[in-house]
Amino acid sequence: MQSSDVLADLARRFRFNQNVLAATTGGFAPDDWGSAPGARGGNTPHWILGHLAATRRFLARKLGVELEVEPWEALFAMKSKPEGTAGFPAPAALAADFAATGERLCARLVELTAAEAAAEWGGSFPDGGHTLAGGASFLSFHEAYHLGQIGLARRLRGHPGFA
Asked: pLDDT (tens digit, 9 = 90+) per residue, 131-143?
């Protein structure tokens, strides 16, 4: 598979995840957003959505998209704790940012040259990837993993499955 095919497939996956987000959160009430998945706590759907929006912004910047850093991004950084929602933007605002950044991210993915895609990320990922394309591939998986967490939270809150 050529580099351009791989990048187009990654863009397709990120666009698909936009639909998954809408399906997994459709019908959510305000209480659903802040619900922990269990008695021991865990990532709330609100925190997960913010984390995904912030991660998309991070990846887009890494690929060369110019985006200002929003103050809320730090609330959802890796290893941050989903304790309450103080300072969190509303879920609708985060979902809108997720979509808007996703459009810019997908546009950039399909315009990357083979040399840009093969450029070093500056570290490696659990799957062994170390290029910009490898980072985008891993973060596509990361996004799907967290969307699955929202899907589980949906079912635990009594909502029907979406698929």
From this structure: 999 999 999 999 9
Q: How many domains does the chain have?
A: 1
| Chain centroid offset of residue 94 CA | 11
CATH of the domain at 40: 1.20.120.450
**CA-closest candidate to residue 45, choices 17, 14, 82:** 82
Q: State how far the Cα of 151 lies from the Cα of 7, in Å rounded to an integer.
A: 26
DSSP 29-77: -HHHHT--SBTTB---HHHHHHHHHHHHHHHHHHTT---PPPGGGGGGS
120 strand-pairing partners: 131
Q: Per the domain annotation, does 162 fall within a domain?
A: no
- Residue 145 has a CB neighbour count (10 Å cut-off) of 10
Full domain range(s) for residue 72? 3-156
Asked if residue 163 belongs to a domain, the reply is no
| Structural domain includes residue 72 | yes
Is the predicted pLDDT of residue 1 greater than 80, yes or no? no
The radius of gyration of the chain's CA atoms, rounded to the nearest angstrom, is: 16
Q: Does 161 reside within a domain?
A: no
Report pLDDT for 79. Answer: 85
Q: How many CA atoms lie within 13 A of 151 on its CB side?
A: 14
How many CB atoms within 10 Å of residue 83? 9
